[in-house]
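Question (not urgent): is this output format expected?
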Amino acid sequence: MITVRFFAGVREALQTDALQLPHRPDLTVAALRTQLADRDPLWSAQLGSSRLLMCAVNEVMASPDTALNDGDVVAFFPPVTGG
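Got this back:
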């Protein structure tokens, strides 16, 4: 299983902070994001490729081609700015 966590505005829009998905061979961050965005228009608006999002895998910043393993925790969150 892979745990997917959502933070900030993404969590609020999707009205969920986490979900569990079965691991698939050859799954990457980009493939996971596409799989989630294909759920419905709301998920597509939040996770689609046109939206700038950051991603971490097991609390380490990850790129779209990062491979995912069984037991990983993947987090999606908007870029953060300070002031």
